[in-house]
From TrEMBL:
Residues 65-170, 171-281 form the PRD domain. Keywords: Repeat. This is Transcription antiterminator BglG. One of its GO terms (biological process) is regulation of DNA-templated transcription. It holds the Pfam family PRD. One of its GO terms (molecular function) is RNA binding.
Amino acid sequence: MKIKKIFNNNVALTEDSNQTEMVVMGRGLAFQKKNGDEIDPVNIEKTFITPSKAFADKLSDLLDEIPYEMMELSKDIIEMANGDLQTELNDSLYLTLSDHIHFAVTRTKNGVPIKNALMWEVQKFYKAEYRAAFKALNMIKAETGVSMPEDEAASIALHLFNARQDGSGMEETMAMTNIVNDVTNIVKYHYGFDFNEESMNYSRFITHLRYFAYRILRGELNDDNNDGLYQQVKLQYPQADQCTKKVQAYLKKQYEMEMTTDELAYFIIHIQRVSNREKKKAFL
């Protein structure tokens, strides 16, 4: 395995005998090496194939900013999550998670915590990912001495969810996209306005829809029925309730899916939030 590019003393781009490019990680594996030298396999702790030149370039930029210790910490967290979730997480997670953890630790040290707007949904619907992410907080504290706020567990859980690599492929992605588009159109035409697709409100709403669509296609829907919450929010937000009923009818017709009162309540809240804020902006 020959070195094609050295990112730093601990990470290098290599090429094997089949001309397959791989990024290899390991403490000191590229120390005093140069392009064309062989890498000792004993020193390699992690190997992953580069999907594109853009990926390798992004890795190079990232390594200019992130200490190798953060990459090692992310590797340990991902290995823990692979075992706990019984899946193989996408290699791109090594980049996104290292970047997130490094930034989050820096923010926390500087007293700048960030609230996770999806905390409620993550705890409720992605319990396995959240449990693994909570373990990650303890691993981060043990390595860095920094106690992260619980919101960071939700953020890490979303990274784990997005990195699932279980053969779902393009067919499922297209089906998820169709559900998101259809539900978005239902909301848009019910209220009679276009979304500001650059807004955070829209981004949060679409994120919720994507995870909801994922659960529909996997048959992993919430089985709780919190009738008290549903009765409260449908009285408080009657127009959002009417819109949610249209979504409910669409899902029943297209996917033979019966929404629980929990799901109905969450949809009412999300639709009320995004519609109220979009309407305010429309009339400014």
